[in-house]
Amino acid sequence: MSEPLTFLQFLAEQGYTDIRPVRGMRWAGVKQFAFTHAIIVGQFGDCTGYDDRWCYHTAAEARAALDAWDGHGEPSGWHRHPGSGRRRTPEGARI
Question: What is the pTM of this model?
């Protein structure tokens, strides 16, 4: 699946919203999970998974963080980062 529009359509069909390119031929978007919404980052054309995920309590929080994020480092405001096991309190302190 090499054509960008076809891949973006694939992501939308998988439930991703607010999809946009970020640095390094990667994409970011928001996806709803059972108990959270998350910013997901993956490689364009990779239909088998994603590279990173940051969980938020609401879709609005995830969208706002994605809108403010430039693709470097981590987005702000997340409460859980499954890849590292890190969590944050509601006040933002890392635990």
Answer: 0.88
